[in-house]
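G., the chain you wanted modeled:
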Amino acid sequence: MNRSTLKKILDDLHAKKIKPDDAMDALKILPYEDIGFAKIDHHRGIRKGFPEVIYCEGKSPEQVAMIAKKILSAGGDLLATRADKAIFKLIKKLNPKAEFNELARTIVIKYSKKRKKGAGTILVSSAGTSDIPVAEEAAITAETLGSFVDRMYDVGVAGIHRILDKKEHFLKARVIVVVAGMDGVLPGVIGGLVDKPIIAVPTSIGYGTSFKGVSALLTMLNSCASGIATVNIDNGFGAGYLAHMINMLGETGK
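Predicted structure as tokens:
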């Protein structure tokens, strides 16, 4: 349940369009719904502005579909991360509007395409093409939550001119997400060029001594450029969510 759904229930109750018992029926799943293997936080849409997001890894397709059904029945948009085709097939049966991004491994059902008035732009950039799946997870997360997203991929430090050639993208962004594996240097480079908050995302891309992203993570945590915050390895979702929250702080129409 989201804020607009709750407000409509309260407005209808105040206007006597519905009876108190009808309002109670609509609100009975708050704050969460226990379905045995999961406790679905229907109240999250009211607290956070967006319903609970489904992390699909470790869950069976049937479990994900059951959680999705409950979230959709409460009137919320849906975002599922780390999804696959088997999961998408079941969710598509629940709602034909479901969209699957195989690269980002996300499933989205969004009833409104409208962006919030006054919202700035989030720039999502990747060092290499191999980092794009994590970058796309960040981009789709931010878009689903309601932000405008600009993408700039394969601009790693092996060819620094590729960054300098696209400076207009950095200048117009309110928040920048930088995704990089291997040496993980790109966030620090960009951080030295702009006055925008940067969310660094280390990826598990790289050869042996990259230690599946640990090397990039440590580089980002130790960056000498200011204004950089670092999320966990391959955590595109966390970066996209945080970028959206920062972006909305600059929204005048909130």
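The mean pLDDT is 87.

Shout if anything looks off.
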